[in-house]
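Bit of a strange request maybe. I'm writing a small parser for C-alpha cell strings and I need a real example to test against, not something I typed by hand. Could someone generate the C-alpha cells for this chain?
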Amino acid sequence: MMEEHVWLSVIVPVYKIEAYLPACIDSVASQAMPGMELILVDDGSPDGSGRICDQYSETYAFITVIHKRNGGLSDARNEGIRHAQGDYLLFLDGDDRIAKDTFVRLKNKIVKSTSYDVIIGRYQKYIEKDHSIQECGYFFDEERISGLKGEALLKEILYHCRHYDWYAWLNIVNRRFLLENSLWFETGRLYEDIFWTPNVLFHSHKTGYLEYPFYVYTFMRTGAITTQEDWKSYYGKMAACQYMKDFSEKNIISSRVRQKLLGSVHQVYSSLIIDAVYIEKTYGRMKWEALRQLLCIWRYSDKKIHHVLYIFAKCFGVPGLAWILDLFFNIISDRHRQESEK
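Reply from user aminoacidic:
Good idea to test on real output. This should exercise your parser:
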C-alpha cells in the first residue's frame, strides 16, 4: 500500500514542560488532517515529558517521538528537521498551542500555491498571569511581499510593522528550501530565533502570508528562557544583539533598513541593560564596553523612551544609566509588594 504524501510536519522540542505538553499536543491532534505528522523531540527532559510523548504516540499513529540527549532547543529543532517528511515545517514550542482551524486554513493556502519558500503567520499572546489574550498586529499585503527577496523583503516587513518579532514559529517553512540553503538552527545559542529567522527571510524568493493568528504563545511562563536571570542568559542576549548588528552590516545596503533591523531587537537590548546590574552584583565587576557599542539599537528603536535613554546614556554613560534603572525598578517593585500586602 502506498504511503500517504506528507504535506506538513509539526516539530515540537520537548524539555521540562510536562504541565503544558498535553494542551500543546491536543491542540494539534484535535484538528489533525491526512498528510500531517507531529514530531515530538524529547531533548533528554528529566521530568515526565518524555513519558507523556510516548503515551500520545501510542494513541495517534501520526505522532513520532524522538528521544535524545539534551542539546538545547536548536539541536532539538534540527533533529526534528532531519526526521521530517513534510513539504512544509511548522515549529511549535511545547508550552504553546496551535489555534483552532489552523491546518484547514493552511492546507487551503498551500494547495493554491505550492511554491512558497516561507509563509509568514500571525500569533496570539496568551498572558498566563491573568489568562488574557492579545493579538499581534502584523498585517501584510501578500501581493507586495510575494515577489520580493533579500533586502527588499526585509524592508517591506520592517516598514509595515511597528515592531517585528523574529520568532521561528511565526514562519511556516518549505523543507526543501530550508535544506537547499542549509538554514539550520545554530546550536548552543539562546535567543536562537534571532540567528535563524532573518537569514530565512533574506533567502526566501517567494513569501506568503497567513492572516489568521494561528499560533498561541504562552507569555512569561515560570522557568522559560526569557525569565532566566543568569550569566548564560545575559551572554545569549549579547550575542543575539551583536549578530543582528553584524548581519545588517554584511547583507544590507540601505542604511535606513540596517537601522530598522537593529531597532527591531530593542527589547533584547533593553533587558541586557536591566540585567547588567544584576550580573555585576552576582558575578563581580563586568565590562560595559560591549553594551556601549550596541547602544545604537536604542537609537534606532521605534519607541521614544529608548531615544531618551540613548541620549542619557551618551551623556552620563551606560553603567550610570543601568544603575539608575535598577534603582527605579526596585522602588516600583517595593511599592507593588507593599500594596499587595495591605
